[in-house]
Amino acid sequence: MEIPNVLVIGAGIGGIAVAANLARRGCRVTVVEKNDQPGGRCSRLMKDGHYFDVGPTLFVMPEVYFNAFSDLGERIEDYLDLRRIDPTYHLFFDDGTTLALTSDLRTMHSQLESFEAGSFQKFLCYLDEGCRHYQLSLPRLVDRDFRSLLEYIHPKNLPLFIHLKALANHYPNVGRYFRDPRLKAAFTFQDMYCGLSPYEAVATFSLLSYIEIVDGVWFPMGGMYSVVEALKRIAENRGCQFLFNTAVKRIDIEDTRAKGVTLEDGQRLEADVIVANADLPYVYLSLLPDTGLAARMKKKRYSCSTISFFWGIDKTYAQLAPHNLFLSDDYKENFDSIIKDLTMPENPSIYVHAPARIDPSRAPAGQDSIIAIVPVGHLDEGSGQDWDEIRNRARQAVFHHLTQIGIRDLDRHLKFEICVAPQDWQRRFNLIRGATHGLSHTRTQMFYFRPRNRHHRYRNLFFVGASTHPGTGIPCVLISARLAAERILQDR
């Protein structure tokens, strides 16, 4: 049998993983990437001895990573030095109270009971629900390639949706366990990882708290970018070729097949199989012939965006743990402003990451590298968004929240600032509307209803990444890469 020639568009984690999978099974694989480094949203910034992960900063669901490396015939411990972070987060509320989310049950007992009598036992019940949701959904819905609607709504699956509380919303569901609004926020804020409001996210997402507290939040020494470097090294060892600073202008179609790509410089590359790791809405809207599907893609729900600040600091702040979250009392207003009004709340919740707490090599000695992330609405031409004004408000909001923990002079110790706003996410990573999580995870855009890993008409065109099944986040993208590779090999 002739060895298939595979072309992968985009060297994000999904693109690198699918390339390595296919190369291991005998395919000739070329990966083209518009930027000068791999990783996509998981790329890295470096300046003056400071190192920052541009996108994800949390290593969760370690079993998915272990399986991904094992599928490539490798041991993850030969590539990554993983350190568990416990407490996973330090939460700060507007009233001055704090909560450290930890796997230490004695500590959790004393903390939770100080918020609400009887809440520790409810916390254990909530974790038990999250465990059930995780163990049911991962093998039966997430790590599965449904080929038809009938396969998805098979009678055997119907009780599953009841067990997963797929028709209930997350925030009202967590109210069955806790009355205190601070605790409700502490166990639903994770929905923002999917670019969702907990007021519309499915209650299935209680699995996120279980994943973090029980399976743990980890940190690969060298940062999340070390995962990118490891996968790229494996792919190159398998014979994959990477072409950087190589932007694709269009995917060339002939009848019902993708024949290759035309690059921005006019060069044409032919392939037997094309895998698009560029964000799926961008592929339909910019790289494929204009069809009704492109129009439908514009109407889909998109996730939120973020304004991210990357700061090199000439001193350290002991008050900051690795992962810090400042949760606003205006919890619902926060999500309404972001998801419905497509702007930034007056008093936003913010996330601050200090990677040098775990890995001192992330900053020069005696200095700090700090990432501050403020969720905001995605780009919308009709909403009159003033991004200069929103960016300035976001910056001041971070400084304001840091005063809660005694940090009042950070602006005077800045060596430099790099800001990545929605326009930057769109320009650099081809994310439609600057939506950092791709397509949103609403009920009609999850599981079978999320765009499939293979084009319905062009049968040799496949997709991996956050906007295709199973969804956003590195673990889901790794699963997406494996499902696409399996489908490609089955079709050969």
Which key phrases capture this entry?
492 residues; alpha/beta; seven-stranded mixed β-sheet; 19 strands; 20% strand; globular
Written overview of the protein:
- By secondary structure, this protein is of the alpha/beta class.
- Helix content is 34%, strand content 20%.
- It contains 16 helices and 19 strands.
- It has helices at residues 13-24, 62-71, 105-115, 119-142, 149-152, 158-163, 170-174, 181-186, 207-215, 225-237, 280-287, 292-299, 331-340, 387-402, 422-429, 474-491; strands spanning 5-9, 28-32, 44-47, 50-53, 82-85, 89-93, 98-101, 217-220, 241-243, 248-254, 257-263, 268-270, 273-276, 305-313, 323-327, 350-353, 368-376, 414-420, 461-463.
- The strands form five sheets. The protein has a seven-stranded mixed beta sheet with strand order 7-6-15-16-17-14-18.
- Strand 10 (248-254) and strand 11 form a beta hairpin.
- Helix 1 runs parallel beside helix 10 (225-237) and helix 1 (13-24) runs parallel beside helix 16 (474-491).
- The longest helix has 24 residues, at 119-142.
- It is globular.
- The termini are close together.
